[in-house]
Amino acid sequence: MLEMSSLQSVETRKSWVVGTVVLVIMGVSFGAPWITVVALKNIAAEVGGERSIPALAGALVWLGSGVGGIVMGRIAERVGIRWTAIGGAVMIAVGLALSTLGPPVPLLVGHGVFIGLLGIGGINAPAYVYVSRWFDRRRGSALALISSGGFLAGAIWPSIFERVIAYAGWRQAMLYYAAAELLLIVPAALIVLGPPPETAHRSALGATAHGSETVLGWPPNLVFALQACAIFTCCVPMSMPQAHLVAFCSDIGIGPVQGAAMLSVLLGSAFLSRQFWGALADRLGGLYTMLAGSACQTVGLAAFLLTQNEYGLFTVAAAFGFGFSGLVPANILAARELFPVSQAYWRIPTLLLCSGTGMAAGGWLGGVLYDYFGFYAPAFAAGVAVSMINFTIISTLAFRQSQTLVAA
Known about the structure:
This protein has helices at residues 13-29, 34-38, 40-44, 52-79, 81-99, 105-119, 124-132, 139-147, 149-168, 170-192, 220-251, 256-284, 286-303, 310-324, 327-338, 344-373, 377-407. By secondary structure, the protein is mostly helical. Helix 11 packs antiparallel against helix 17 and helix 12 runs parallel beside helix 14.
């Protein structure tokens, strides 16, 4: 790990209690947009079969949560994450209720503004900054844990939503879930999310608290811009199978129950393997972990182009989930390693905005390419190309870091 070890550790048993509760809160909050993913074909049927509309709703959640994270990160610095998390839970419930009024406008506004911008935006980015302050020795593992909330949601909720939607319809499923997430998130935030411990840690590889020195021998904001490009280009291909796997399975004759189960396998694999990537990041650092994850994601996504067999796709889904799961937390860890903690409140939300924008672009692009070509192979091929660009950017940063460490 790259943090200075001479300072007294802030980690205690309570740190892991806080991290576990934040994981649960993230897992519940990120469950909301999965209803639209599972019901993509049902919702599209109400707008002439255009899958790009429900895909856009999911994309707007990612984009909105990224923008909201920058604003809510600053608010959380002032009032505490407890209140932004509670407010976010209320806004998610409002967004789900509004979305039941139907596509396109209520669905898009409900998802983009309320679920994304005001809802998940008040929970996701502030949680990364908050939890990073509870850890120093095993920060990579802690960030991997809480960032698994979205995968935990994807592993648990799609199969449940598929059955609820089949029984009561997608609108009723949204209303049921709105009530459930309020009952789970609000008490947890009130009881557990207190002030974090004070930390005096600096970054180990460059910038001072005032950001006046270089990072990796380059201007700090140039390094940060490359980080932002890396997290955007990793999330574009990452989101394509997640947003379209159930519909893709249906197109090739695999039933919705199996499709939802396959999505759960993909995200369950991502959830479990993210702990591996977190432990690896504690040993190797953020940039080298990003490099390994990028290579694995590229290979996994390419495999979707090579099989349409049900059992083969289950295997590919599990492999893809393993490959991409370490990229986002490793990027966040790299930011904490490269820049001082005093800048975390805006650098981390900015990276998560780029991540959310990439997730939004990938999910939406997948729907657009499907509507144009009538099948998903062009979307997956485009994702592979973007993933190769991602590998190139990370390679540049990792090589620069290796040069810097050798020179030191």
